[in-house]
Every structure is written in C-alpha cells, then in structure tokens.
Amino acid sequence: MKSINDIWHALGDDKARLDDCIMRSAHSPIDLSNQVSNYIISSGGKRIRPLVLLLLARALNYSGTLHYQLATAVEFIHTATLLHDDVVDESAMSLYPCFSIDFT
Hints:
The chain has helices at residues 4-10, 14-26, 31-42, 48-59, 66-88. It has 104 residues and is mostly helical. The chain has a domain at 4-75. Helix 2 (14-26) packs antiparallel against helix 3 (31-42) and helix 4 runs antiparallel to helix 5. The chain starts with a helix and ends in a 16-residue tail after the last helix.
C-alpha cells in the first residue's frame, strides 16, 4: 500500500504549488494572523482533502490552475472547523496546541 507521501510524490510539484497558494492566500497585513497561518501551514498534516481534490483534477484531465485555489479553500475550511472545535467548543483535545485556551 502506498503512503500519503508516496501519493504526493507522484503528483510532482502539486504539493509545492498548493503550499504556495496557501501561503499567498493566508497572507495578511496583521502580524498575528500571519504567525498563526505560518504555524498551521508549517505544522504539516496529511492534507488529505486537498490531495483528493488534486487527484480528481488529474483524473478529469483538468489543465487549468484554479484547482489549487479550490484545494486551498478546502484546506482553510477544514482548518476553520478544527479551530472552531478547539476554541469555540472548548475541545478537551486540541489538534493545534497554540490555540488551546484554558477556560477554567
């Protein structure tokens, strides 16, 4: 069975292009926002959701570049739901420890 990294490797420079799109889309004039974005992006993760989208684009022989923006949006939505769970719902187990807040 192939690992996630094997699949990303097979996609060539798609991961680098996705990461670049994420960085450009997350850029903000607010320093704290940039720090949070950089932390999330550099923390790694499998990025399965954008991977599936990029694989689908290949399977459909898509030749444009908008799939990187769509994959970025999918990753941002996923990240927003994780942040919501951590902060708003006061989750006991944080996937992003920098956002864990002690509500006691």
